[in-house]
User: Fold these one by one.
Assistant:
Number 1:
Amino acid sequence: MSKNWSTQNITILEPPATKDKAVDCLVFVLPLEDLLVIAALQQGNLIDSHFTLGKLIKYAFDLHKPSSVLLAACGLSADPDDASHMIICTLLERLKLAVTQASTS
C-alpha cells in the first residue's frame, strides 16, 4: 500500500506534461463536490473559474514558467491563462461525458 502511495505521490508532485494528464490530476485531487459543480457549468460560464481553478492550475502545473512542457503541449503561444482555460474546458468535457455515460447505464 505505501509503495503505491509513494508512486502516486511522486506523480502528483511532478507537473503533468499533457492536457489529458493535467485533467487526470484534477480529477484525482479535486473533491467530488467540486467536480459535480464543474460538471454542472455551461461552457460560457467557465470564465468565472479563471481566478479560482484557473489560477490554481496555472501555478500548480507550472504554466507560468516559460519552460513549461504542459504549456507547450497545449499548443499556445506562451499564454498560461489560455492554457489553464483549455485544461478547464477539457475537464468539463470529460466530466459531462462521465455524467452522460453514468445516466445511460
Number 2:
Amino acid sequence: MTAVKPDLAALDAADPLGPLREAFYLPEGLRYFDGNSLGPQPRAAREAVLRVLEVGWGERLIAGWNDEGWFDLADRTAARLAPLLGARADAGGGGRFHLPKHF
C-alpha cells in the first residue's frame, strides 16, 4: 500500500483560519508552535500599546486617568474576575474582591 501525500499548499490555501496569520508579526516561512510562550505578537496589541503611550499618556497626561478609564480599571477588572474565582466583587473600590473561606 502506498501512502498518499496530501497537497499541503492546497490545504493551507483552503484553511479558513489562514488569513488570521496576517494579524500577527511572524517572520515569513516560520511555523510557530511553542505552547509555553506569549506567542507571536498580535499587530493589534502593538497598535493599542502605541496609542496608549502616544495619546492616553503622551497627550492626555493626567486627564488620561479618566479619559482612558484607568481610574476605575481595577474595580472593573475585579468585577469581571470575581465570578471566575467564585468571589464577590467589593463595592468599596480599589479592585478588591472577597474569596469564599475555602480558598
Number 3:
Amino acid sequence: MLDGLFIGVDNVLANTPKLTEGETIEQKIERIVHNGEPIKDGAPIVFTERKDGVIPAYNPRTDRFEVAVEAMDKVTKSHLAKRQENLERLHGKNEPKTGETVAKGGENQQS
C-alpha cells in the first residue's frame, strides 16, 4: 500500500525541471560587445510626439473595455457588410432593403 504513495512522489520528483543559473547583465553586455551580436530582446517603442497624444493601448487611464467595444463594432459592421453582399449576390439586387416591404404588385414601398 505504501509503495503506491512513494511511486507518486518519485514521479513528481523525476518530472521536476533542473534549474540552471542565468546570465548576469554584466555577462550579457560583455558577450554582446565581445561577439558583436545584435541586441535581440527589448521593449517596443511606445513614444509618441506630444502633439499626437498618448496611444490608447499604452495609456493606463484608457478604459480598455471601451477600446474593445469600438473594435468589436468595427468587426460587426464588417460582418454585416459581407453578409449583405452575399445576400445580394445570391438573390439579386432587387431584394427589399431594411425597412421596405414588397407589395403584391412587386414594387417596393416604404414602411
